[in-house]
Amino acid sequence: MLEFYLNGTPIRMDDVEPDLTVLELLRERQHLCGTKEGCASGDCGACTVVVGEVDGGSLKYRAINSCIAFAGSLQGRHLVTVEGLADGETLHPVQQALVDGHGSQCGFCTQGIVMSLFCWQLNGTDRLSAQEALAGNLCRCTGYRPILDAATMLARQAPALPAWSGSPDMMACLAAMPNDVIPAETSGYRRPEDLTSLRAAMKDWPDAHVVAGATDLGLERTQALKRLPKLIDLSRVAELAAIEEGDGYLEVGAAVVYSRLQPYLKTHFPVFAALLSRLGSEQIRQRGTLGGNLGTASPIGDTLPVLLALDAQLCLLGPDAERGMPVSDFFLGYRKTALQAGEIVARIRLPFLAPQRVCKVYKVSKRWEDDISAVLGAFSFSFEAGCFRDVRLAFGGMAATPVLAPAVAAELEGRSQDAIDWSRVEASLAASFQPMSDVRASAGYRLKVAANLLRRAVVETVQPDTATRIFDHA
Amino acid sequence: MRKLVDLPAGAVQAPVAPVLGNDRRHDSAHKHVAGSALYIDDIPETAGMLHVACGKSTQAHAHILSMDLDAVRAHPGVVDIICATDVPGQLDIGPVFPGDPMLANGVVEFVGQPIFAVAATSLRAAREAVRLARIDYEPLPAVLDIEAAMAADSFVRPLHRQVRGDVAAALAEAPHRLSGEQRVGGQEHFYLEGQACIATPSEDGGVFVRTSSQHPTEVQKLVAEVLGVPITEVQVEVRRMGGAFGGKETQAAPLACIAAVLARRTGKSVKYRMPRADDMVMTGKRHDFHNRYEVGFDDDGRLWGADIELCGRCGYSPDLSDAVVDRAMFHADNAYFLDQARVVGHRCKTHTVSNTAFRGFGGPQGMMIIEQAMDDIARYLGKDPLDVRKGNLYRPGQDVTHYGQKIEQHVLPALIDQLEVSADYRQRRESVRAFNAANPILKKGLSLTPVKFGISYTVKHLNQAGALVHIYTDGSIHLNHGGTEMGQGLFVKVSQVVADVFQIDPRWIRVSATRTDKVPNTSPTAASAGSDLNGMAAFNACMTLRQRLVDFACETYGLEPSQVVFSKGRVLLGEREVDWAELIQEAYRGRVSLSATGHYATPRIHYDRTTGTGHPFFYFAHGAACSEVLVDTLTGEYRVLRVDILHDVGRSLNPAIDIGQIEGGFIQGMGWLTTEELVWDADGRLLSNSPANYKIPSVGDTPPDFRVALLAEHPNHETTIYRSKAVGEPPFMLAISVWSALRDAVASLTGYRYCPPLDTPATPERVLWAVEAAQQSQKEAIDADLPVV
Ligand SMILES: Cc1cc2nc3c(=O)[nH]c(=O)nc-3n(C[C@H](O)[C@H](O)[C@H](O)COP(=O)(O)OP(=O)(O)OC[C@H]3O[C@@H](n4cnc5c(N)ncnc54)[C@H](O)[C@@H]3O)c2cc1C
Ligand code: FES
Ligand code: FES
């Protein structure tokens, strides 16, 4: 039985298949059709809902894509949909602002925009710009201007809480709900809370898929039409959700969602933080994890070249033991990793950069927001006495896996800007990589841009006054 | 009805302000934000409803040798399967010309073409089942792009020519001559609501269809034809669409036809909703074009002649392509007097999905070529492109288009002057130059381009509309017309027209779903003509009713017609004043018919295909945009920094709605020209088949500085409703200024001496290649010791 709250009302549902999506649950089982399906792939935001979770004595809310979230993830949570905002005929201020500002035309994207703005306002509009909050909500009609204007108005108001927020016992009831969908053994969906029960679950269900945010795995279900009869949800495993600021490193649990990681990166790895703000959308970052990015091991996974450039260390968790591994040993081939059966990524350790080290991360895609990289360059080096040293270059989109480019790095190693022979750099890139021509870019473009990203890194380091960015970040 | 409703005093409120020209909100705005507006997929499902998925061709062109559907049939939940041979009536559902079988019959002509359809108890079951089919093909040679089609003389329709004078002589005599070519990409509609419909069997052998379609009448006719029943046995309702943009003009009908056949066979309601992944592959898109120009001009950049060739990729069937390529030809001049001219339009047949209507309907693709020519002339002469554009505008004396229509209202010269000042064009031109001189890596570009867009369907008989108006005994009004609501605000505009005639608050008017049994034989809601046509039809219906009310009042109260005045929710009857609703009750008691139809047919329009001349457009809508961009010459990435738009909507029925159309159209046009790239592989498979790899503009693409204004004091010179102008499509083409500004930034690398071609969409990759070509050209110029700036 799945137990959760829906717009302030307790819900109990039997016979929930583990791979039912939250959107299907809403539209097909609850007959609440305000939430729309525009793509079922996490790209359009029409399905945006807000999910509240008891965290440190209060309910923390986040906007997510219901189309690729599994229903089991709702256990013990509060699901808020567009139907849950208005008070009878009186619209919520977010809704009213969109009406007043002519923010809807066909209206199909609108509920998703309402939910994104609602959550944005609820969590404090200084945390995120309106643009960042809305980057995962496509609107084909309005051109966004009236929506941004409505957001500007909302930023000046205190968030209004819907009627359900006053319900005193909702939080207590949520906290008291079992962690697992009951009975866990037959529900097909398990949500262990610690490593011991995770290991037990993985032994019980050796054929299960592990899932963290489901921002990749969800598409297997909705796009590739796979059936996923057994899922082990990592998101509540305490050890996988921890972040540690250690002596000389930041250690991140594999199931830490990006949005939680972001402030730590801002402190310790600002260029990584800047990249993260372009990974997917707010809805994706509220669910996606480093573990999932590593687990998918896509050649265009955005964080992976950064982990390579930073020389991150992975801690892998097997049925009985843990083992460590530099991330550079992790990628074996196209979407093939060093993970063995029954093994998962537990933690990622990012060593702090030494003071003289520079790190540069550049993502190039057709669209600035919420797009997959054509090429991603992540570089780290020391710049001393006008020369580049200990150069470490990693690329995404250039090969079957995210890769280091030691031969190219050698062309920069120990040289000053003037001593870099760019034709040799380009030749070395061409010798190192045979990138694909695909829907995102041609092989020629990828090679050219890879070289030019190095040019940009050099210029920014040597001539910091030269303008090189059309946007301020990544 | 024995007793009429009691009327509280002032029941039907007076309008707060003049209803026309008012920023009234979209009639569904409250429902949109509350999530209570119903789209097809939100309609509560009846018990036993079945869901459809189609088995699709994996080949671009092939004979179907055999089909083994046993595994499909055996899949749990599958109830029925149909193939081409199961269609009881006519198989071909081509909207204008034949060529579109409802299901492929022996031959497939594009990857994604539906071959068979499954009805199952759930959408998931239907989708899983269709994957189990085994189909053997014998591949046939496939023509996949425009070049191949031109080489193979592969066309869906014969070419058309518009010729004025002797272009060859003009080119030969002109002091300067330039030529160029361009590839203009297509576009996926990406309406947020995918195609969807529900067909419910009727008790008389027909069906009732609820669909997300811009053209309910055509859905009705085609469904009747595939079922083999009279049209009257099929009724179609469209409440609203979650976006359409032309993509639901013809493309909704096949789903309705398939669902209708399955509904009749199974006796169940059948829903066919396409998941995004199917929608992107199976439905038609904007035509991509390969265009060429050759122009002759003088030292001022004034055209002496233009020879223009437009080749549109139509896909495997004619669909609407004849009219689309025609409209491209009608707009190959955009706003400029070509003088001696030849415009040729080819309709290329390829083994890809059949391309279809999309906002602008070929007009944008045609305009692109002359705008490229304007920029190229400017570079060649070392002039500011704006001056070349201004010098070529239609003006009195040079006011006849290459297809013989006289331009009667010259809006653009003054409009451009006004925008040039309000956008501070000249000053910013200097700043851009200074910025570019100071910055080695980032470059700015600036461009101001106009739009002149012809309003009317180029198929004459479509230029008509009908409306039905009922007044009930409490004074409330039911309004129905043939237009469909896709977000553009048609319903609110037409209800404003009705409210204005009777001077009552528009809240008392309910516009109901578009239905073929209320207003028959309607045209598609397209060609920007929705308000022009349906507004006038509703106006005419209201004028009939108004006349009846006036006649009744004169007769009953012994008044002259001038003594009956409708004002602020009340009616002056000579000395007396009554509530609107009171008059209605009196009229009802007096047995006056309170229901009327209205009809409208656009006057003046004609076009002769044999001569390529006529007056195809009732009038033109105009606008201009000035865009500034910032380009990264290392990656080709760019950003649109500021856009100023001044647009001519005549006298606006609803400025807020019109501005929404302008902003939305502009951003959609910008997407078309920048990030939205359709990519096929060598076998004709669409690779850009999902929003993960087909990128429409997102919120951050909206220019941070976006200034949109309506041209004031310019009522339509023709007698349109309220002297307004159509606004749906024209603003789309304002985005050409973004593309031209990107070229301007690239041209800065050659000291504005030359700009390499920039095909569209101008993705960062294409921009980078243009940057490289410009740098190469500059290097060669320096090496050759040519004078460089
Ligand atoms: C709209 C959209 C936009 C996106 N944009 C980007 C982008 O810009 N850049 C980018 O890089 N990615 C992007 N992604 C992909 C995805 O969000 C990321 O890869 C994310 O990191 C996946 O994390 P997750 O927790 O959601 O993974 P899940 O979907 O839960 O899992 C993904 C895979 O990894 C496995 N897995 C999960 N956790 C672990 C673990 N701890 N150890 C081993 N295996 C594990 C799962 O079994 C599964 O096979 C996007 C996805 C969507 C839907
Ligand atoms: S439906 Fe598009 S993001 Fe979920
Ligand atoms: S209003 Fe139509 S998609 Fe946003």
Any overview of this molecule?
The complex is a heterodimer of chains A (474) and B (789). Chain A starts with a strand and ends in a 12-residue tail after the last helix. Chain A is α+β, with helices and mostly antiparallel strands and 474 residues long. Chain A has 17 helices and 19 strands. Helix content of chain A is 31%, strand content 21%. Helices cover 29% and strands 24% of the residues of chain B. Chain B folds into three domains: 42-141 and 189-282, Aldehyde Oxidoreductase, domain 3 (Alpha-Beta Complex); 289-458 and 610-783, 2-Layer Sandwich (Aldehyde Oxidoreductase, domain 4); 464-601, Aldehyde oxidase/xanthine dehydrogenase, molybdopterin binding domain (Aldehyde Oxidoreductase, domain 4), CATH 3.30.365. Chain B is globular. Chain B has 19 helices and 29 strands. The longest helix of chain B is centred in the C-terminal third of the chain and has 28 residues, at 530-557. In chain B, strand 13 and strand 14 form a beta hairpin. The interface between A and B is large, with 85 and 89 residues. The structure holds flavin-adenine dinucleotide and FE2/S2 (inorganic) cluster (2 copies). One FE2/S2 (inorganic) cluster sits between chains A (104-110, 139-142) and B (192, 243, 487).
* Low-confidence sequence ranges of chain A: none
User: Any idea how many domains of chain A?
Assistant: 3
Largest interface in this structure: A-B, 85 and 89 residues
Q: Which topology of the largest domain in chain B does CATH recognise?
A: Aldehyde Oxidoreductase, domain 4
Q: How many distinct folded domains of chain B? A: 3
Low-pLDDT sequence parts of chain B: none
Query: What is the highest CATH level, the class of the largest domain in chain B?
Result: Alpha Beta
Beta-strand portion of chain A reads 15-25%
What is the helical fraction of chain B, as a range of percent?
Answer: 25-40%
Rounded to the nearest angstrom, the radius of gyration of chain B is 28 Å
Strand order of the largest sheet of chain B: 3-5-1-12-9-10-11-20
The CATH topology of the largest domain in chain A: Uridine Diphospho-n-acetylenolpyruvylglucosamine Reductase, domain 3
Helix content of chain A: 25-40%
Major pleated sheet of chain A? 5 strands, mixed
Query: Quaternary arrangement of the chains shown?
Result: heterodimer
Q: How confident is the prediction overall: mean pLDDT of chain B?
A: 96
CATH superfamily of the largest domain in chain B: Aldehyde oxidase/xanthine dehydrogenase, molybdopterin binding domain
Number of strands of chain B: 29
Span of the ends, CA to CA of chain B: 85 Å
How large a portion of the residues of chain B is in β-strands, by DSSP E? 15-25%
Bound molecules: flavin-adenine dinucleotide, FE2/S2 (inorganic) cluster
